[in-house]
Design brief:
Blueprint (H helix, E strand, L loop, with lengths): L6 E5 L5 E3 L2 H9 L5 E5 L6 E5 H14 L5 H12 L1 E4 L6 E3 L2 H8 L9 E7 L2 E5 L1 H7 L3 H12 L2
Antiparallel strand pairs: 1-7, 2-6, 3-4, 3-5, 4-8, 7-8
Amino acid sequence: MSTFIGNIEVKADEKGRIFVPAGYRKILAEMESKRIVMRRDTDNACLIFYPETVWNDKVAALRNALDEWDPEDQLLLMQFMSDAEMLEPDNQGRILLQKRNFECLNDGQTNSESKEMVFVGMFDRFALWNPEVFANKKLEQHDLAERIRVRMRK
């Protein structure tokens, strides 16, 4: 199976539509996933896009980890699911982002009206960031190398 890799800069049009990168659309087609699920990331000012099959697997795992009769677990599941939206790219490969999603991406940055974004591959899913916010979050090369070394020793 192919994986989502790299980072690809895109720009939204005046209606808030963006092109899903052609390479990502090709992987979605290989996965037989016409629809993608978008949700706000729980920790960062970005949007995460899951092929529908991957999303279904993630939600099933979360649901199995929760007690459906526990009120806190119910609220956790509701909140997680309420931040999600099912999208189907149009015939040209574009998806429409709502204004609230642009606000999420801009995370209080000074260029809050920017329509420039960057897609970032994440193996079985991909993320969409404001390039300035992503650049500020990225680790220095040395820190990245050290963290990878530590994780790979486990």
